[in-house]
């Protein structure tokens, strides 16, 4: 059980650090922070936000408060992902990709 808790901690730390770096890169408009390599596609802001939510949820210890936050994080991820999937399915822009920050 201790190995699982350790893996959970390191995965949460990795996701949180990665998403914080990417979100900072988008705010600063610094391409190397949002792309692993220049010829790779940049991580989208929505993906970084979902990684941040998942990472922080993984870092929480067990308990009622942690359980509520994990539920809230899951609901927020769904609230981000459902409109993105709708954009793809409908082939229309719903404005959930934060075009003002990207453009």
Domain count, please report it.
Answer: 1
Distance between the termini: 46 Å
Radius of gyration: 15 Å
Helix count, per DSSP?
Answer: 4
What's the total number of strands? Answer: 0
Determine the fraction of residues in helical runs and give it as a percent range.
over 70%
Main sheet makeup = none
User: Order of SSEs, N→C?
Assistant: HHHH
Query: Percent of residues in beta strands?
Result: under 5%
Instruction: Name the shape in a single word.
Output: globular
Average pLDDT score: 87
Low-confidence stretches: none
Computed structural class: mainly alpha
Structure description:
- The protein is globular and about 45 Å long.
- The protein has helices at 2-28, 45-59, 64-90, 99-102.
- The protein is built from 4 helices and no strands.
- 13% of the residues are buried.
- The N and C termini lie far apart (46 Å).
- Helix content is 71%, strand content 0%.
- It has 103 residues and is an all-alpha fold.
- It has one domain.
- The mean pLDDT is 87.
Features:
mainly alpha, 4 helices
Task: Briefly say what this structure is.
The protein is an all-alpha fold and 103 residues long. It has helices at 2-28, 45-59, 64-90, 99-102.
Topology record:
Elements (H helix, E strand, L loop, with lengths): L1 H27 L16 H15 L4 H27 L8 H4 L1
Helix pairs in contact: 1-2, 2-3
């Amino acid at each position: 059980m201790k190995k699982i808790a350790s893996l959970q901690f390191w995965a949460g730390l990795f996701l949180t650090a990665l998403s914080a770096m990417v979100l900072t890169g988008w705010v600063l408009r610094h391409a190397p922070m949002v792309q692993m390599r220049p010829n790779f596609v940049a991580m989208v802001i929505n993906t970084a936000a979902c990684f941040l939510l998942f990472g922080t949820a993984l870092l929480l210890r067990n308990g009622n408060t942690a359980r509520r936050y994990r539920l809230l994080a899951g609901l927020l991820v769904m609230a981000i992902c459902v409109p993105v999937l709708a954009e793809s399915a409908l082939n229309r822009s719903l404005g959930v990709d934060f075009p003002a920050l990207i453009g």
